[in-house]
Amino acid sequence: MNLTSQKERALMPNLKVSLTARGNRAIQAIPPSLIRTVDNRISQIPDIIKLTLGEPDFEVPQHIKNAAKLAIDQNFSHYAPSAGFLELRQEISNYLLKATNTYYQPEGEITVTVGATEGIYTAVQGIFNPGDTIIIPTPSFPLYHAVAELMGLNIVTVNTAPEYLLTANKLAELLIKYPQAKGIILNYPNNPTGATYSPEQARAVADILRQTDLVVLSDEIYAELTYEQHHLSMATLLPEQTILISGCSKSHAMTGYRIGYLAGPAELMTSIDKIHQFVVTTAASPMMKAAEESLRHGQNDIIQMRTIYQQRRDLLLNALNLAGFTTTTPAGAFYIFARIPTNMIQDDVKFVYDLAEKAQVGVIPGSIFGPGGEHHIRLSYAASTESLIEAGRRIQNYARQYQHSAVI
Amino acid sequence: MNLTSQKERALMPNLKVSLTARGNRAIQAIPPSLIRTVDNRISQIPDIIKLTLGEPDFEVPQHIKNAAKLAIDQNFSHYAPSAGFLELRQEISNYLLKATNTYYQPEGEITVTVGATEGIYTAVQGIFNPGDTIIIPTPSFPLYHAVAELMGLNIVTVNTAPEYLLTANKLAELLIKYPQAKGIILNYPNNPTGATYSPEQARAVADILRQTDLVVLSDEIYAELTYEQHHLSMATLLPEQTILISGCSKSHAMTGYRIGYLAGPAELMTSIDKIHQFVVTTAASPMMKAAEESLRHGQNDIIQMRTIYQQRRDLLLNALNLAGFTTTTPAGAFYIFARIPTNMIQDDVKFVYDLAEKAQVGVIPGSIFGPGGEHHIRLSYAASTESLIEAGRRIQNYARQYQHSAVI
Fold first, then answer.
1. Which of A284-298, A325-339, B6-20, B369-383 is the least confident region?
2. Which parts pass through the membrane (chains A, B) (predicted)?
3. Does the pLDDT value for residue A75 go beyond 70?
């Protein structure tokens, strides 16, 4: 019997009617990812150039691919220790020592995760109890909010516009208002804005946090993509109360390999590592060997990619400015967060669909990232230089229609 | 500056004293995995043969390795859809159609997970609310209990000894006592006992469950390792209220590739897929391409491995019986659950350490798997034939000391 005829006669997993709407309420309350909704809708437009996803267009460097393939040949197909292969944790430790001047012990202070996503999830699960208060500066990566909500946390969002950084002053004010806060999520360089702390700003923020008992979840996955300035990590400034979230996905174009890591004080990491075991057991073995290689011999890859990203950023910034968008030069990550010109559609979701339909350029509405994001769009410049040139041209053409028409 | 001297001068992530013992209470309440504790301790004994872990000693079949390496070469290094590559979900759908006669739609009814572990975790998180009652037959894989406890579920365990199967009669009694139960975890072939439902037994259990609104989480990861009888899936018997948990880890010796999957009615899968996104985003792309190949062209691998497992099972059973252990022939998985002879140490944890020290054979104490496991040991025969022969010889030698000594 062939598959088609077998399908026709097969049973169907239609949910028993009495089981309708009985699943987890916290999950049902969280709306589906709007980034995906927008991305799916505009993906159907022919010839669209998508600057939507935070994903490098680069290929994984050849020496890292080779390491992954060698690991497959060498039968790294068995369970790794739950915290990840010790050799990888040693490389992470060495890397962090050089990058942050803090020495995290491979045994007990570092856990390898399934991308930074699992890092964020397990860190929040490991540190907080339902009802705890967490501070999330916005605009921010929507995952933070979803994970905190899933856990039943009390979420305090703080709008960081127009700097797009939670400055020391704003933080101080906030802590007077929410003295019960147990933790805070920092993300710099920031997704979606590309803003990042200068060393002075980072120090000022750390000085305030040091006077508190807040646990700092510092998502620094874009640390290696910092332009024209030095990235000063919370791991350097506040190692005694920080869980550092990072990984190789963005620095080495390895998003699909799903390797991230967490580093922090042993007691916090013990809880986190325990839940990590229950959630995934461990990351994929050959992918960990690839990550090991990226940390051991991948410093040049980063430098090369960073140079190209910076060129792409400037190219896209220039096109946006010519089209009338207000931007600040993002100092990190690979996003531009641009203010929609006041003579164009001001509802950012409607604007995005209009731009996609009329100009065949796909971007993400800023309001998806929370308070401070309205009237903005996020453009990822982790796309090829050719696509960015063409997208810039299309956006400028799109802007021309407004030179002869009234404000909508 | 070299790493050693840099280490000496580096900062240390010593937890701020005021942050001590402030982490997640539910996680802290769960004891660390006793399997790992036992395994770590006995791993330090020189020349030990470990029959402790549920991990095939086989290598990944060459055609599957090739598929993984090709995927790396072909730049499958970008994010896959959160539910997994569509091609993989199509292969899973085809496989399940043939194996269970139920047609799960690749879009909406199947989610690829980071091993069956993440499948179990996200299924429990997606289906239950804190305070819900879940039935877990024991002895069982300790992860079920931990995941349910983490979520604050009300756990009803039911001792399945001596059959090591939750029979229809026992289930019926249980449901009278716990009419509020919202779900049940089934696992057959079973870890740790190797017991599995005959088709008649599975039908009888399904007939009772069909009269209830219980959601059935059916962990059938060992389905392909069923000996001398047919595996009848809950996906066939109860598709309208079952979430099927499975994967390629055990059938194709791919534990370290971390690919599992869930299949079930669309409404339940929607919640589960949403939390899956928040937990891991998606599984590793090259590993998914390997899993696709294992489902498409890997049927012969299974048959070959199964034949060898069965020989190993019989070999180890024979040695255990000669040494005085009471066993039933396990019909599935790759575990033997053996009753410690009454003239030996009856505390199974103490017995395991004694066996490890005196006979250099590592096994897992049965009580770790919950009520019904006491006085038993679990031996994994997913080890090489040579190790199993030698382990059998050592166990028989160990038993000889008791022929001339009193009961301890």
1. B6-20
2. 315-338
3. yes
CB B100 within 8 A of CB B106: no
Class at the top of the CATH hierarchy for domain B77-297:
alpha beta
Q: How far apart are CA B345 and CA B347, in angstroms?
A: 6
Task: Return the H-helix or E-strand segment holding A186.
Answer: strand A183-187
H helix or E strand, kind and range, residue B316: helix B299-322
Q: Pick the range with the lowest mean pLDDT from A305-314, B243-252, B368-377.
A: B243-252
Which residue in B27, B277, B283 is closest to A271 by CB distance?
A: B27
Please say if the pLDDT value at position A123 is more than 90: yes
Instruction: Tell how strand B215-219 and strand B183-187 pair up.
Output: parallel
Q: What distance separates the 2 farthest-apart alpha carbons in chain A?
A: 71
Which chain B residues contact residue A287 at CB under 8 A?
284, 286-287
Q: In this predicted complex, what is the ipTM?
A: 0.95
Strand order in the sheet with A110-113: A110-113, A260-263, A242-247, A215-219, A183-187, A133-138, A154-159
| Chain pair A-B, CB pairs under 8 angstroms | 304
Q: Which residue has the tokens 């043939």?
A: B98
Class of domain A30-60+301-401: alpha beta
Residues B362 and B356 sit within 8 Å (Cβ to Cβ): yes
Half-sphere exposure of B385 (CA within 13 A, CB side): 9
Task: Assess contact for A238 and A212: CB atoms under 8 A.
Answer: no
Q: What are the tens digits of pLDDT across the range B71-108?
A: 999 999 999 999 999 999 999 999 999 999 999 999 99
What CA–CA distance (Å, rounded) separates B304 from B138?
31
Q: Which of A8, A14, A16, A74 to mutate to test the interface with B (most CBs of B within 10 A)?
A: A16
- Domain ranges for chain B: 31-60+301-402, 77-297
DSSP, collapsed to helix, strand or coil, labels residue A343 as coil
Q: Which phi and psi (to 5°) does residue A37 adopt?
A: -60, -50
Tokens, residue B147: 């995941």
Average pLDDT over residues B273-296: 97
Q: Which listed CATH number (1.20.58.220, 3.90.1150.10, 3.40.50.2300, 3.40.50.1370) goes with B31-60+301-402?
A: 3.90.1150.10
- Partner residue opposite A12 with nearest CB, options B213, B239, B280: B239
The three-state secondary structure class of B360 is: coil
| Partner residues linked to B159 by β-bridges | B138
Q: What are phi and psi of A282, to 5 degrees?
A: -170, 170
Q: Are B149 and B198 in contact (CB under 8 A)?
A: no
Q: Which two tokens stand for residue A36?
A: 């995906």
Cβ pair B65:A55 closer than 8 A: no
Nearest CB to B15; choose among A240, A253, A285 = A240
| Gap between the Cα atoms of A208 and A203, Å rounded | 9
Q: Which of B360, B377, B317 is nearest to B50 (CA)?
A: B360
Per-residue exposure over A283-292, b if at least 16 CB sit within 10 Å of its own CB, e if not: bbbbbbbbbb
Q: What is the mean pLDDT of residues A316-330?
A: 96
Average pLDDT, integer, range A312-322 = 97
The per-residue b/e assignment along A62-80, b for 16 or more CB within 10 angstroms, e otherwise, is eebbebbbebbeeebbbbb
The fold of A62-297 is: Aspartate Aminotransferase; domain 2 (3.40.640)
